[in-house]
Every structure is written in C-alpha cells, then in structure tokens.
Amino acid sequence: MIVTYEEGAAEGAADGAVGATKVEAEEKIEAVNAEVVTVPEAEAAPTQATPEKLRRAKEKLEGEPGVRSVEYDHAREASYSPGDPGLRDQWGLKKTGFRSAWDDTRGNGVRVAVVDSGITAGHPDLAGKVVAQKDFVNEDATADDALGHGTHVAGIAAARTGNGIGISGGCPGCEILVAKTLQGRIGYDSDVAEGIVWAADNGADVINLSLTGPAPSSLLKKAVDYAWNNGAVVAAAAGNSGDGTVQYPAAYSNAIAVAATNRYDNRASFSTMGDWVDVAAPGVGVLSTLPGGYGYMNGTSMATPHVAALASLLADEGLSNEQIRNRILSNTADLGPGGRDPYFGTGRIDAARALHRPANQ
Questions:
Q1: First-residue to last-residue Cα distance in the chain
Q2: Among 298, 294, 261, CA closest to 277
Q3: Which CATH superfamily, name and number, covers 85-356?
Q4: What is the H or E stretch that residue 349 is in?
Q5: Burial state string for 88-124 with b = 16 or more CB within 10 A and e = fewer than 16
Q6: In what side-by-side order are the strands of the sheet with 175-180?
Q7: pLDDT value at residue 361
Q8: Which of 168, 271, 301, 312 is an active site residue?
Q9: How far from 5 is each of 24, 25, 39, 59, CA to CA, in Å?
C-alpha cells in the first residue's frame, strides 16, 4: 500500500504509523511525502491475504496521526500505440480489438505466409519484413507484385508498425513469407498448392489464402491438410459472390473460412455465405499498402489477413493450430442471428477477447 502523510507531520509520524499497525516500510518517496508499505501476512501467505484483511490494515493506517491517505499500490500496464499516421483510418484494427491486443503480444518472430500475387518487398512499410519469397508462376526467386493484391494483403497482416509512416499491421512483429501463385487475378490450383506446401516447409505458423473459386480440388485440399498437419493455421477468403456458392479452399475443414463485414458490423453485400463460413472480419474500405503507396480495397481478401494476423498473435502465445482456431472462433462478437449462422459464422473476430483468455483455453 501507499501511505501519504500530512504536510508538516512530525518526522516520527511515519515510524509511529508503521509500528502501530504492524505493516512493514519498504521505501520512502520523500518528494511527495509518501511511503510504500507491505502487510507481512499478505507477503508470507498471499493466498490467505483476503480483501477483508487488507481492508482492515488499510483502515487502521488511515486512523493513525499524521496520515493523510492510504491507497493500494495498483498495477499498471504499458499501452502500446504506434505513431503511424494511417492508423486512424484503419477502422478494422480498432473495431476488432487489435490495438488492445498489442499490449499482450506483437507476434515477434512469428511467420505469416501470403500466398497471393506477390509483394512489393521494397515498400517502406514492408521493407525488411520478407524473410523468404518464391514465384511459382514464373519459376523465379523473386515474387514481385504487378497487381498489388498481395502487397495490400501483406500490409493488413504485418506491415511495419511504429515507424512513423503509413499504416500499422495487425501483427507488428511478424515475419512475412511470400509465395506468388497468382498472375494478375488468376492462379492455378497447382501453383497455389505448391505455394502452400512451400510455406509450410519454410516454417509458416499461419498461411493466408486471399483467393477463392467454386471448383473443389483434391490437390488443393491435400495442400491445406499438409499445412495443417505441419502445425500451420490456414485462413482463407470465403469469396465475393454475394450468394451461397461454396468456395474453395475456404470450405475445407482445415481452413478458417472468412466472411467480410463493414465498419457498422453489417455483412458486406458481396460476402459469400454458407454453413461452412467460420468467422467474419473487416473487408470494406480497408486501407493498406500498394506498390505505389497506399490505398483502399474491398473484399473477403481484405478480411482474411485480419484473421491471419490474429492467428499470428496467438501463435506467439505458444498455442497449437487447433487451440488457435478454437480461440478465434469462440471469442467473437456475435452478429446476425444468435449463435453460428451462414453470414458471419460464429461472429466478427475480437482480438482483445481472444488474447485475454487464459492460455489453456
């Protein structure tokens, strides 16, 4: 507890108060005429230090001559707020509780793979983040992004954060793996499957698949299963058809299928629906990195890296991919009909709730 003494109180007031109440003096803060004291009973047996016993000790101290006030020595937490100017326009990070979650973890060293159209690795908000890349379309070692889709997705998931420019990434400390499997907006299952396997083999903790199509593929399913069996979480876009057409790879059981919401927590009109949809995340008017700077995009492609970023933060807590999946799905803001539904799955993700759950849940 912290004891503050009256101005001008006799020098012996502190010793008298401490001696009369059987507390122990720890240190004095002379500039503000205060002293930190502990209750020996609480120190010796913390589990028996009931609020009632502490309250009695506090009240006894308050009654001693020369004592102005007594208060508990409360714990405080660091509150991380990066100074990136674009953060104020990243409504999705605020809506989904990432800014609170960063006080728990920033995902340092976790690897998130972006299997997409490539990346502009030299972008100021992505420079130094890419630890491995490969172009499966052109069989090249450099996964350059002519479309901008992959660069936008990568920024949402893991842009450099706290560098005073641009935007913030959902997983500030994440490393990025890049597998280029789309040429423009089109990619073939064979390239996508190779990209997924490569990401898993290169230590991806989380794999982001902001790509979709209505045709099932046994090859694609095997690749998703391979990644899952190697410990990776796979987040996949539910698609932008706006109807109930089943989309793959999102519909596979070892992927988390992600629908899109707007800033008002309404379902995005384009977001595909179905009983295979697992969760929802912000996907309308999402600001992120582009090859020439920054810009806004819409789609379940933008919603998915929010989930990938959350999975990455949870991976930093030492959880398995199954635990991460369960933590994400069971800690959402329930939208639409009560319980799980075809529009939002279990609900819109909530990073703060997911991170603040006990580690064994």
A1: 33
A2: 261
A3: Peptidase S8/S53 domain (3.40.50.200)
A4: strand 348-349
A5: eebebbebbbbbbbbebbbbeebbbbbbbbbbbbebe
A6: 130-135, 175-180, 111-116, 206-209, 233-237, 256-261, 279-282, 348-349, 332-333
A7: 42
A8: 301
A9: 16, 14, 18, 15
Q: What is the pLDDT of residues 15-52, one digit of tens each?
A: 666 666 678 888 888 888 899 988 876 655 555 556 77
149 is catalytic: yes
Q: Is 123 a catalytic residue?
A: no
Q: Catalytic residue among 125, 135, 149, 271, which?
A: 149
Is the pLDDT assigned to residue 14 strictly greater than 70?
no
Strand partners, 304: none
Predicted model pTM: 0.80
Query: CB neighbours of 300 closer than 8 A, spacing ≥ 6?
Result: 210, 212, 237, 238, 239, 240, 258, 259, 260, 268, 270, 271, 272, 283
Q: How far apart are CA 318 and CA 91, in angstroms?
A: 28
Note whether 334 and 265 are within 8 A (CB).
Answer: no
DSSP bridge partners of 177: 113, 132
Ramachandran bin of 293, using left for φ above 0, alpha for ψ from -120 to 50, beta for the remaining angles:
left
Tens-place pLDDT, residues 72-92: 888 765 556 688 999 999 999
Does residue 191 carry a catalytic annotation?
no
- Digit-coded pLDDT (tens) for 167-183: 999 999 999 999 999 99
**Backbone angles phi and psi of 177, in degrees to 5:** -105, 140
CB 15 within 8 A of CB 3: no
Which pair of structure tokens corresponds to residue 116? 């997409």
| Alpha helices in the chain, H assignment, sequence order | 12-21, 40-44, 51-62, 91-95, 98-101, 149-158, 189-201, 218-229, 300-315, 321-329, 351-356
Instruction: Give the span between the Cα atoms of 285 and 89, in whole angstroms.
Output: 9
Pairing mode, strands 34-38 and 24-29: antiparallel
Catalytically annotated residue among 84, 116, 189, 316: 116
Yes or no: say if 200 and 227 are a contact pair by the CB < 8 Å rule: yes
